[in-house]
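pinned: reference chain
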Amino acid sequence: MDWRGWAEIVFTIALTVAVGWPLGIFMARVWAGGRTWLDPVLKPVEAVAYAAFGVDRDKQQGWFAYTGAVLAFSAAGFALLYGLLRLQGVLPFNPQGFDGLSPHLAFNTAVSFVTNTNWQSYAGEATMSNLSQMAGLTVHNFVSAGTGLAIAAALSRAFATDRGETLGNFWVDLMRTTLYVLLPLAIVTALALVAAGVPQTLLANVEGSTVEGAKQVISLFPTASQEAIKQWGTNGGGIFNVNSAHPFENPTPLTNLIEVVSLNALAFGTVIAFGRIALARKEARALLTVMVILVGAAAAAIYASETLTPQPAMIAAGIPDASANMEGKEVRFGPAASSIWAAQTTGASNGSVNSMHGSYMPLGGGVAMFLMQLGEILPGGVGSGLYGIVVLALLAVFVAGLMVGRTPEYLGKKVEAREIKFAMLAVLILPLSILGFSAIAAVLPVALEGLLNKGPRGLTEILYAYSSATGNNGSAYAGLTANAPWWNTTLGIAMLLGRFAYIVPVLAIAGALAAKPKLQPTAGTLPSDSPLFAGLVIGIILILGGLQFFPALALGPIVEHFQVLTASR
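pinned: its C-alpha cells
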C-alpha cells in the first residue's frame, strides 16, 4: 500500500463522476424528448423503428400499462434467447461447431442476460457461437440496460408530475435510450478498444507457436463490441471465462482505465439525469455524494485488506513482509487497480472482473459481497441503481418523519403508507432470496456437491453466488461449480426475483407519486439536499444491510478472516 495506489483509486472515481456528469445532462434531454446533436442521423432511424413496430410515440402509459410493457418485453426476450441457445448447434455463424446448450444452462443464461445480470455458468470461449454472442447476448446487453434506464426515466417523471396519471411510454423510452445513449457510447468505446489491441473478428481462432515450438489454438471472437456494451450497460458478461482479466478483453492499463470508468459512468450520470427531470438537481447531487462516499470507502477497505492482511502462505514460505496479495491478480494492474475495479463492479450490477474475487483475502471478498447485498446502489446498474437508492431515500424520509411526527415528504411529494409498503416489498426481496436460497443450499446434498471448499469458505461461496444473482451482478467467487441443474435453476429464479420483484413495486411507487400534488417545501420539510440527509441515507443503507446480512457474513468471510490471522502467527 502506498500513495500511488490511493491516488489511483481517487483518480478513477473522480474521472468516472466527471465523465458521468455530462452524460447525465445529455440523457435527461433524451428522456424529455428534446433535440440533440445526434438528431440529424438518428431521428429518421427512430421514426422508421416506430413505424415498423407500430409504436405511437405520443401515447402515454399509466404505471400498470408501463409495468406490463416491461414484463411482456422481457418475457419475449427470454423466450427468443432461450430458443437461440438451445438451437445453437444447428444455426449458422458457428465456426467453432458448438452444440446447443442444455435446458437448465439455457434457462440460466437467458434469464441472466434478460435481467442484466450476465452470470455465466459456462466458459464463453468454449460454449457460445458467434451468432449466440452477437444476436443473443450482445443484443440483450443493450436492451436489458435500456429497460433499466427506461424505468429510471419513468420514476423521474413521477416526481416532476403534478397530479398526473401517466409515466411516459416504455417503448419510446427504451428506443430513445438505446438509440441515442447506449449505441453511440458502445460504438465509440469499441473503436477505442480495437485501437488499443482488443480483437474484433468473426474468425473462430488462430494458430500460434509456443516458445517450445508447439502449436497452440487461440480463440478469437468479436470481443471489442461486446466488451464496450457490457461495461456501459453494467452487464458484465465476458466472452472469455476469466472476463476482463483476459488479455484479449483488457490488454493494457489504458484499456483497464477505459473499462473501469465506463462500467460506472452512466450509472452516476443517471442520477444527474434524474435531478434534471425531477427538478431536483441539489437533491440528486446529495444522492450522488452518498454513492461516491460509500463506493470510495469500499474500495479503500478492499485495498487495505489486500495489502495489509498477513498471508499465511507467505509467512510459511518465510516471506513475512510481503506487501500485497497478488494471487488471482494481473501483474499489469496490481492491487490498487484490482481493488477499485472490485468495488466499482460489485457496487454496480456489473459483474465484470479484472481479478479473481475468490483469491482475495476474506475481508476483501466480504466487502465486495456486502456491496451486492446492499442492493446494487453504489452506483448500481444503469437505471436500477437510481431507483434502488430512491427507494432507500424514501425510507430515510419516512424514518425522519417518525422522529418528528410529520408526514414525510421527498422532492415535493408526500410519502405515505402505500409508498412505504411497496418500498419494503422491494428491499425485503434481497434477504428473502439471498438468505433463503443460501440456507437451503447449505444443507442440501445436491447443492453441496458443487462446492470446492467446506466450512466458512464454502458458506461464502454459497452466499456470494446468491448475492450476485439476486443483486443482478453476475460476478463469481470461484470454487463453486454452478453448471448443474440445482444451481442453474435456483440462481435463475434468484435473478428473476432480484430484477422483477423489485421493478414492479418501484413502478407502483412511481404511479402513486405521480398522482399526488407537487408541494412546495415548508419550514417543517426535511431538506433532502443537506449533509444531514446524506448521512441519514448512508445510515439507512448500512443499518439495513448490517441487520439483514451481518449474521451470515459473521459465519462466512469474518470467521475466515480470523482463521487467516491465526494461521499467520
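why pinned: Strands lie at 205-209, 215-219, 409-410, 413-414. The mean pLDDT is 91.
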